[in-house]
Amino acid sequence: MICMLAAALGPLAQVLAITPALAALPAVPSTAAAPPADPHATEQWAPIPPVVRPAPETAPTPPPSDAIVLFGGKDLSEWVATDDAGPARWKVEGAVLTIVKSAGNIQTRRTFTDYQLHLEWRTPKGITGTGQARGNSGIFLGATGPRDAGYELQILDSFANPTYVNGQAGAVYKQHAPLANPARAPGAWQTYDIAWTAPRFAADGMLASPARVTALLNGVLVQNDFALAGETVYIGPPSYRPHGPLPIKLQAHRDPSPPISFRNIWIRPLP
Fold first, then answer.
1. pTM score, two decimals?
2. Which CATH code fits 66-270?
């Protein structure tokens, strides 16, 4: 998808200065019942989103003049390893960034609040595996801690690859299925264009307004101003805890399929 998100969503505001410090994340006591121990309890299998044929793959979308280029094909200077904040240890070759699964997740050095994000990703041609074990990764639109803590938009090979619908490409993982399945075949570049509004918290730590996301996959709207119920969790219901600006994280999922790749990642922080 090489259409601009602004064309689909309307004009976007001017870029803001980026807040450099990640706020502390104190735990919020919960009176909710204990979450179920079975991860299958939060899987949704129907209705199945309609398959939509996207526009043909084209050249990468150049960043606009006010964008911050997070990966332009040369190096990982804008990224760090999530586990120790050291240099990101994924592979850069031929202007393409490929996951090194043993190296763990990576996240941006900078933190963000509201933004427009463009990202292109590709599963290898001839990829093996089925369901969640085929081309699994994710974009954490705000990383709230180590490993897989944060708000995840799913990456998966969803071309003729059935799985639970709130776990396929374009899903807010375990929260909301995509409106359509416009996945291209393995070996082709897939494109996300995302508008993210971070949650707001009152002075006492209570949620003032939820996070919201609009996302296009290959030019097709898959999330339409969806209000998240909280951070992504694998087991049990999502919930919020207060925080400030957050980094963006890319997941090195440990599924056994060959690793996926990324290119042309840029962001426009918004007022």
1. 0.85
2. 2.60.120.560
